[in-house]
Amino acid sequence: MRSAVSVEAVRRAERAAMSLLPEGTLMQRAAAGLAAVVVGELSAARGGVYGARVVLLVGAGANGGDALWAGARLRGRGARVDAVLVAGAVHEEGLAGFRAAGGRVHRVADVPDGGLEAGFGDLLGRADVVVDGILGIGGRPGLDDATAALLDLAAPDACVVAVDLPSGVDPDTGAVGSGAVRADVTVTFGVLKAALLLPPAGQHAGRVELVDIGLDPADLTATEVASLDVADLAAAWPWPHAGDDKYRRGVLGVVAGGRGYTGAAVLCTGAAVRSGAGMVRYVGPDEPTALVRARWPEVVPGDGRVQAWVLGPGLDPDAGDGQADRVRDALGTDLPCLVDAGALDLLPPRRDAPTLLTPHAGELARLLTRLGEPTERADVEARPLEHARAAARLTGATVLLKGATTVVVPPGGSPAGGGPVLTQRDGPAWLATAGSGDVLAGVAGTLLAAGLDPLLAGAVAAAVHGRAGALASAGGPLDAGRLLDAVPGAVAALRDWPT
Ligand SMILES: NC(=O)C1=CN([C@@H]2O[C@H](COP(=O)(O)OP(=O)(O)OC[C@H]3O[C@@H](n4cnc5c(N)ncnc54)[C@H](OP(=O)(O)O)[C@@H]3O)[C@@H](O)[C@H]2O)[C@@H](O)CC1
Ligand SMILES: Nc1ncnc2c1ncn2[C@@H]1O[C@H](COP(=O)(O)OP(=O)(O)O)[C@@H](O)[C@H]1O
Ligand SMILES: [K+]
């Protein structure tokens, strides 16, 4: 499990560690770790550090201090290191250390208006590595125009190394402001910060390197956001046992598709079959039922006893084909329900039984608007965690928000009581294809029917869906049929996936 904490928790842990250590120790450890990563990048790209060009972009706080001390170390290895001070203030000890090591210092404030390119174009355009020491955990989202313009001067093939966090993101929520840094590597200190696991900030971080600076793990137990790794997935997966039969393993009922929309019914039931549900029942009108039976003869048509329901993929609540009533009936039971797509419109104000909502950004905006919080899709995309939490709070359900990074928020919006928010980013962008969400619903349904709680069922399903996507795509285009065909292999590989 990769775990991340809040800024408040990091600051507390840092204060505790600092009280036991000589002043400046943590920053020196951070700088040493940062310099080591830069050395690694330079060695890989050009065979060594000597003579490499490194430019530090330095903000007002300790994040800039880390960059300056790392720059001093890189000077010691023979790199040419320039620091560009982007703010009015600077970490003075770091600056003195950098100067003493022979680093050159420039100030954005010394360049006349409109002169950034003339002043820094050559410097940044020739840099092998650009170190983003602009903002860390003290940062608010967004960079000013001059700083953002400076970043644009870097050569496209320069390696951008972010210090602690890519600057311009919100450290706790993962929201991203304008001009935020896009890093190739982020070197983070002591513990992952929540933004590194959250969309969209996590997608700005590149590869994340965690440097141990000696914080006490006992001070870092308040996990805010976590991502399941392969060991967690293997531990959570409901592997069958000799004593099992199909009923004990879990029967899933599916109300999907309808008159005119048939594909979702075939894909969703198929994904449930392929992810190992004990049995799948499909409930719907004649046409999708016939197609489901033709493709998946093991699916049992019609109502009957189930352990969980998947409701809504490809379902039009206004079609007048009986599907809306079937959804309402299932929502009226005390069984776990996954509520997707068209069924989201039918969700009652409150449901006490375990409930997993699986909207994409547009569907979440629509749901929040219906619940009295007018929201646009773009709002959800800019601040996914905030909006998923709002839906969890308003509905009392677990909310899985789909996207390149899937966010699963426990009922009530967490973290109080419900455990951390889980995020998964396991699959390629080829997963953004029609029917992909129907496959996810089927896999998550299998897990609900097997008895997993909605938070774990959602996160495990998202991870397996992503891994199946990676297997099926192998770098090329993907369709939902091949995605669901890859699900058994993705599940089997959980026990021997290379970590
Ligand atoms: N604590 C420790 O023990 C250790 C900490 N370490 C390092 O310290 C980092 C945290 O340092 P930090 O607290 O000094 O904050 P940092 O992120 O450098 O910047 C704050 C400054 O930026 C400003 N500012 C904010 N947003 C802005 C914006 N959008 N645009 C423009 N300006 C903005 C803000 O202004 P203000 O809020 O005062 O208005 C303030 O002046 C941490 O991430 C890690 O790298 C490591 O060395 C390990 C030990
Ligand atoms: N850029 C992306 N990278 C990786 N996965 C993605 C990306 N965009 C979407 N996905 C995943 O693909 C699926 C799309 O689901 P959805 O939007 O409901 O599609 P549909 O309704 O066509 O089935 C979700 O599981 C989502 O997390
Ligand atoms: K930074």
List the helices and strands and how they pair.
Blueprint: E1 2-5, H1 7-18, H2 25-46, E2 53-58, H3 62-76, E3 80-85, H4 92-100, E4 104-107, H5 116-125, E5 129-133, H6 145-152, E6 159-163, E7 185-189, E8 192-193, E9 207-211, E10 225-227, H7 230-236, H8 246-249, E11 251-255, H9 263-274, E12 279-282, H10 286-295, E13 300-301, E14 308-311, H11 323-331, E15 337-339, E16 355-357, H12 361-370, H13 377-382, H14 384-395, E17 398-401, E18 406-409, E19 421-424, H15 436-449, H16 454-473, H17 480-485, H18 487-492
Parallel strand pairs: 1-8, 2-3, 2-5, 3-4, 5-6, 6-7, 7-9, 10-19, 11-12, 11-14, 12-13, 14-15, 15-16, 16-17
Antiparallel strand pairs: 1-10, 17-18, 18-19
This protein binds ligand NPW, adenosine-5'-diphosphate (ADP) and potassium ion.
List keywords for this structure.
499 residues, 16% strand, Rossmann fold, UDP-N-acetylmuramoyl-L-alanine:D-glutamate ligase, binds ligand NPW, binds potassium ion, alpha/beta
Would you kindly provide a brief summary of this structure?
It catalyses: (6R)-NADPHX = (6S)-NADPHX; (6S)-NADHX + ADP = AMP + phosphate + NADH + H(+); (6S)-NADPHX + ADP = AMP + phosphate + NADPH + H(+); (6R)-NADHX = (6S)-NADHX. With 499 residues, this protein is α/β, with parallel strands linked by helices.
CATH superfamily of the largest domain: Ribokinase
Main β sheet profile: 12 strands, mixed
Low-confidence stretches: none
In whole angstroms, the N-to-C terminal distance is 12 Å
Bound molecule kinds, no repeats: ligand NPW, adenosine-5'-diphosphate, potassium ion
The 3D shape can be described as elongated
Domain count, please report it.
2
Mean pLDDT: 96
Kindly name the structural category. Answer: alpha/beta
In angstroms, what is the radius of gyration? 25 Å
EC number: 4.2.1.136, 5.1.99.6
Binding site for (6S)-NADPHX: 62-66, 136-142, 164, 264, 314, 360, 438
Pfam families: Carb_kinase, YjeF_N
Subunit structure: Homotetramer.
